[in-house]
Structures are given as C-alpha cells and as structure tokens.
C-alpha cells in the first residue's frame, strides 16, 4: 500500500460577518418621500441622509423630515467610517442659510436637524454660516425646534461660541467611538478634545447630545468608560447605533451588536447618569431627534 501525502487545505481569509435580519430596511418610497426629494433638489441642498447612506432615509423622508448638511458636501477630514467625500471643499455660500431656512419652512417640519462637513480650512470653521442658518430658520419657522450636530472645531472655542449662539434647542457633537479606537476611526480628531467641546457647550447652558457607533471592535468596558467620560463632561443625551460599512474602502464591521445588547447598553447608560439614551441597531444621530427636545437641561 502506498501512503499518499496529506494535502493541507489553504488557510481561508476570515469570513466577514453576515448582515443580520434586524438590519434590513425598506427602500424609500411614497408621496411624502418624493415631496422631500423635490424640495432638496429644487433648493440645491445637501442632506446627510444621502451623503451618509443613512438606513433610515426612507422612514424619515417618508414622514416629511430630513437632516440638512450645510457648508457643502466635501469634508476636510478622512474618517475611516464615513461615506461623505473627502477633499478640498469648493463651496462657501453665504446665501445657503436662507435657502435652508426656506426649505424647512416649505416642508413645515416641527423639528429640524442641521449638520455639516468639517471645514478645517476656514478660519472660523464655518461658524457664521452655522449661526445664520439657525437664526433664519427660527425667523421663518418660529414653531420649529432645531438640533445642530456640529463638527469638531479643533479647539477653536471662539468658533464654538458662535456656532451654538443661534437659539437651537439641542446641540450635538458625536464622539463616534471609544478612546482606544480614535486613531483608527477618527485619525484627525482627539477623544479628549471632543469631550472638552461637549463640556464647554454644557457650561454655556445648552442641552447636549452625542453619538457612538458600535461594532468597530470596542469592548463593553471601553464603552462604559466612554459613558462615564461623557457624563463627567455634562452630556445629557446619547445615541448608540450599529456601524455599517458604507463601501469596501471603509473599515470592516468587526461585530454586529444584537438588539438585546443594545437594550442592555441603554439601561447601563441611564444607570451611569445619562438623562436619555436612544439605543438600537438602526439608530443614527438624528433618529427620533424630536424626542430629545424635551430632555431637561
């Protein structure tokens, strides 16, 4: 009998985790969705719903709401999780606040969310456009409440003061991930600097909000530490959602967090002193944002 050599199978690359059923969403359809689509196009507006590939776009636009993105759709940062284009921004339109305010009035939304790309090349980080957008929106739609999701100002605290001075009800700044993953996820940002931005916003008397993506490789204890850090720096509201890889060029999903885990993290956040925690696989910064206006300051 001849002994045949044993051929070892090639080592296969680790399989990517398969997207679970609880992350499947309906395609955007309906008359309300179409109406918002027309308004966004007619007024030449940018929305993070589109630029960020948000899974809730169909639900939110179908309800006649959208999150507007000011200061263009090209970001000076290159965060490894984000679908927004990176490069040298070409837009700086001082008439943009009027167009955004008019669109919000035409949509008759009760609660508007406004965000922006990072504009590190601007001396004031775009702060005057931020303030004017909020002020004009309040003038044209006095019954509309506003949340502003503002970028990292790179410790330009004068710019921060202008950004938060328009009269908005909620001011959000996302830390996005735990401290140990910052170099990987937000290479041009600093964990402590974002905490300081939240602290200064709270000291100015505002309702504060932040968001963290889960499934990037963070450990539960690291998330709990981030919660404690946020509470220590005056955070009121926290959103927790599943990271979803926007393209193959972005970070892989390390883990899909189950709905039960999200529910546990919500209870843990409340136990640690947060006033409100929105936690679930499809939660994004502006998801159910209208509920956050009533959180005590």
Automatic annotation (TrEMBL):
It is found in: Cytoplasm. Its main location: cytoplasm. It holds the Pfam family LIAS_N. [4Fe-4S] cluster 1 binds at residues 49, 54, 60, 286. It comes from the Bacteria. One of its GO terms (molecular function) is metal ion binding. GO terms for cellular component: cytoplasm. Binds 2 [4Fe-4S] clusters per subunit. One cluster is coordinated with 3 cysteines and an exchangeable S-adenosyl-L-methionine. Pathway: Protein modification; protein lipoylation via endogenous pathway; protein N(6)-(lipoyl)lysine from octanoyl-[acyl-carrier-protein]: step 2/2. One of its GO terms (biological process) is protein lipoylation. Gene3D superfamilies: Aldolase class I. NCBIfam families: lipA, PRK05481.1, PRK12928.1. HAMAP family: Lipoyl_synth (MF_00206). This is Lipoyl synthase.
